[in-house]
Automatic annotation (TrEMBL):
GO process terms (BP): negative regulation of MAPK cascade
UniProt-recorded Gene Ontology molecular function terms: protein kinase binding
Transmembrane segments: none
Species whose genome carries this gene: Bagarius yarrelli (Goonch)
Gene3D superfamilies linked to this entry: Pleckstrin-homology domain (PH domain)/Phosphotyrosine-binding domain (PTB) (2.30.29.30)
Principal location class: membrane
Official protein name in the record: Sprouty-related, EVH1 domain-containing protein 2
Domain WH1: 29-146
Length: 205
């Protein structure tokens, strides 16, 4: 069965700021293994547009890199996904990049993958093809969850809009049923109802 990543308890969260996030956006990131779809060892790379090649990020070194779920502070029930890399030898965070639905992921070789998001290009040199495949699955799982969450939000918004329209129609519609007397010389009784509230009106000819 697919692994389910549960929301993170607030007591176990640590505040981080991502280079890829908007300046005003603060997110709480869980550092426990349970928040990760995948974690592998790899060397973090960055694109050098001037030379057209790839360079090691912040001095290089083997890192533990994973795709994890993060819960923004103050937004209950909402989650984002972050690619997070920490260098093993000194625990320095060298990669923080949010997964977005427009992320473009490329498997250049069996052990080198790279992606582009928000005009930033990042890459990973993996220890093995198996690690590369596992990381690719983790990124795709995050993208699927983002897509599913977007569809659910659209469906919910459409349902609420339709429900509001139906409720409004119920309030404005005022059907009237009239029961006429058998003879014209008898009193006429009119029955009128709106919103299931019955009102009786009696009129004489």
């Amino acid at each position: 069965m697919p692994r389910t990543v549960a929301p993170v308890p607030m007591a176990e969260l640590i505040l981080h700021f991502s280079d890829c996030q908007c300046p005003e956006r603060h997110l709480w990131m869980h550092r426990d293994d349970d928040s990760y779809f995948v974690r592998v060892k790899a060397v973090v790379m960055t694109r050098d547009d001037s030379s057209g090649g790839w360079l090691v990020q912040e001095g290089g070194g083997l890192c533990r890199v994973g795709v994890c779920k993060v819960a923004p502070a103050g937004l209950s029930g909402h989650s984002d996904f972050l690619i997070h890399g920490e260098r093993l030898k000194d625990k320095q965070v060298v990669l923080k990049c949010f997964v977005r639905k427009d992320l473009i992921y490329t498997k250049a070789t069996p052990t080198f993958h790279h992606w582009r998001v928000d005009n930033r290009k990042c890459g990973l040199t993996f220890q093995s093809p198996a690690d590369a495949r596992a990381f690719d699955r983790g990124v795709r799982k995050a993208l699927e969850d983002i897509t599913d969450a977007g569809l659910a939000s659209l469906c919910s918004s459409g349902f609420m809009k339709n429900s509001s329209s139906i409720h409004h129609a119920d309030q404005t519609a005022q059907p009237v049923a009239i029961i006429r007397a058998a003879r014209s010389d008898e009193p006429r009784t009119d029955l009128a109802f709106a919103d299931n509230n019955l009102e009786i009106r009696k009129e004489n000819f």
